[in-house]
Write a structure and sequence with these properties.
Elements lengths: L13 H19 L5 H9 L3 H11 L2 H5 L3 H9 L8 H22 L10 H10 L8 H20 L3 H16 L11 H24 L2 H5 L2 H20 L14 H16 L8 H10 L3 H15 L4 H4 L3 H22 L10
Helix pairs in contact: 1-3, 1-13, 1-14, 1-15, 1-17, 3-10, 3-13, 8-9, 9-10, 10-13, 12-13, 15-17
């Protein structure tokens, strides 16, 4: 889900690198952690700011390529990782591997994590909507859909494309909060559509703020400290209070997630990590923030295969989540070593 930006707008931002690892671990907590502490559970399970933040980051760094209609780089976005992006073709490879492995396991041992053979229809559904066999890949499908849609509109309307996206976003929110919105069912089609509607305004906000070159403007001394303080207070406020309506039916449909993504991104972008001159510290940050895409892909596979063997994982503890993260990191590390500079390495980075 997660890409290393090489956009000309900015060099490596240690703040964004740290934000990625925080949000990546939050994903693992969301899927693999449980607690009786209602306050912590509310933050982890209901203040789902991790995925919207990734979506925002993705399109903030996509704007320059979109605005210049740099087709070659846009194609690269569709083919390979570019943190925090994930190539759609790997959202095909991982589910297909899982489908084949589980069916072989069931044929030989009469057991797998699904306790049955998986059908070809289920695989097609997975590849279409990103849910069914390996549900976390939905992010990739939506990311690909947006990249293609945004690119086509930008090619057709040139200078007006961003205005069109903003108008659509306003209509999405207006529709979402109106009495005319349909009752969302639990069908895979509706779930996918709901996530598209939830993520669309967030991606457009990323494009819009990037068009304003907002981070460079806020890095001016007189603005920087104020912006950091405001964003920090906003984040605390969003965690503590429930002031936005979250309609039932599908996740990420509230403007809450858009506002949270903005504040997380600006805060971590502006914290002056560039003042760190110690090479060891910089290298350490770069190392620990690697492979977030691969970790996102395989953390549920690690969980499914180890929860019966490791009590900390089975009991859904924080330490179990740390173990999942570290094992996933190690698998990605080995994968990169084995596959070197081949295209397969992108399954792990």
């Amino acid at each position: 889900m997660i890409i290393k930006n090489k956009n000309s707008k900015s060099s490596l931002n240690l703040g964004i690198e740290l934000l990625r690892i925080i949000m990546c671990f939050w994903v693992i907590l969301y899927h693999c952690f449980d607690t009786n502490n209602k306050k912590i559970k509310k933050i982890i399970k209901f203040k789902r700011f991790h995925v919207p933040t990734f979506m925002f980051i993705s399109f903030y760094y996509f704007y320059n390529n979109l605005n210049t209609r740099n087709i070659s780089k846009i194609k690269m976005r569709l083919i390979r990782h570019s943190i925090p992006y994930i190539s759609i073709k790997y959202s095909i490879i991982w589910p297909t591997i899982i489908w084949i492995f589980n069916n072989i396991k069931y044929i030989i041992f009469q057991t797998n994590r699904f306790n049955r053979r998986l059908t070809l229809t289920e695989l097609i559904y997975q590849l279409t909507f990103g849910i069914k066999i390996y549900g976390i890949i939905w992010f990739n499908n939506i990311l690909l859909l947006f990249i293609i849609f945004f690119t086509l509109i930008s090619l057709i309307f040139k200078k007006k494309f961003l205005l069109i996206f903003q108008i659509i976003s306003i209509l999405v929110y207006a529709f979402d909060y109106s009495k005319y919105r349909p009752k969302i069912t639990k069908s895979y089609t509706w779930i996918f559509l709901g996530r598209v509607l939830g993520m669309f305004p967030i991606s457009v906000t990323g494009l819009f703020l990037s068009s304003l070159n907002i981070i460079s403007k806020l890095k001016i001394d007189k603005n920087r400290n104020k912006a950091i303080l405001i964003c920090f207070l906003n984040i605390l406020f969003l965690f503590k209070y429930d002031i936005f309506i979250i309609n039932r039916g599908y996740v990420y449909r509230s403007i809450l997630f858009n506002i949270a993504a903005i504040n997380f991104f600006i805060f971590f972008s502006l914290v002056p990590f560039e003042k760190i001159k110690n090479k060891f510290v910089i290298t350490f940050i770069k190392i620990i923030t690697k492979y977030t895409g691969g970790i996102y892909y395989i953390h549920m596979i690690v969980k499914k295969n180890l929860y019966k063997k490791i009590d900390l994982i089975n009991n859904k503890t924080v330490y179990g989540c740390i173990i999942i993260y570290l094992i996933s990191y190690f698998i990605c590390f080995i994968g990169i070593i084995i596959f070197g500079k081949t295209i397969i390495r992108n399954l792990f980075c």
